[in-house]
């Protein structure tokens, strides 16, 4: 399995947008717009990451300015974390999170935020509850 940044594989934008939309019930066009923005952004946000098993999307996540919350000071946000059920418990979510954190750190962004109720899940991967 391979983890990729969508900005390096723009040919996958429509496929990825359709996949994320099917998981989170957010219009596909919203994902397409954000992924297209990731191709040209100067501040490195947004970004979108996929885990592929051959050409099949088995997991993914995004990094966006704000994930539908009031705390504008908590930015950027990890969002839309999802791993297909047959691929769970294989540390794919952790690999995606690490990849995104490392990629963002290379671009000068040392802190990412994640608004979630699943605190113990993310703490397993070194995230701190705030």
Keywords:
130 residues; alpha+beta; four-stranded antiparallel β-sheet; 4 helices; 4 strands; 35% helix
Largest sheet: 4 strands, antiparallel
The residue-averaged pLDDT reads 89
> What is the tally of beta strands?
4
Q: What gyration radius follows from the Cα positions, in whole Å?
A: 14 Å
The SSE order reads: EHHEEEHH
Helix count equals 4
How would the global form be characterised? globular
Low-confidence stretches: none
Strand order of the largest sheet: 1-2-3-4
How much beta, percentage-wise? 15-25%
Percentage of residues assigned to helices: 25-40%
Q: State the end-to-end distance.
A: 32 Å
Class by alpha and beta content: alpha+beta
Structure description:
This protein is of the alpha+beta class and 130 residues long. It is built from 4 helices and 4 strands; from the N terminus they run βααβββαα. A 4-stranded antiparallel β-sheet has the order 1-2-3-4, sandwiched between helices. Helix 1 crosses helix 2. It is globular and about 35 Å long. It starts with a strand and ends in a 7-residue tail after the last helix. The relative contact order is 0.15.
């Amino acid at each position: 399995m391979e983890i990729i940044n969508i900005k390096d594989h723009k040919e996958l934008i429509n496929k990825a947008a359709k996949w994320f939309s099917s998981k989170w019930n957010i219009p596909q066009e919203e994902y397409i717009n954000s992924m297209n923005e990731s191709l040209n952004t100067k501040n490195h946000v947004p970004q979108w990451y996929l885990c592929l098993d051959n050409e099949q999307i088995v997991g993914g996540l995004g990094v966006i300015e704000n994930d539908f919350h009031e705390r504008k000071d908590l930015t950027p946000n990890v969002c839309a974390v999802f791993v297909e059920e047959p691929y769970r418990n294989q540390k794919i979510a952790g690999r995606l999170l690490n990849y995104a954190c490392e990629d963002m750190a290379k671009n000068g962004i040392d802190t990412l935020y994640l608004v979630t109720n699943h605190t113990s899940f993310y703490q397993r991967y070194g995230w701190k509850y705030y």
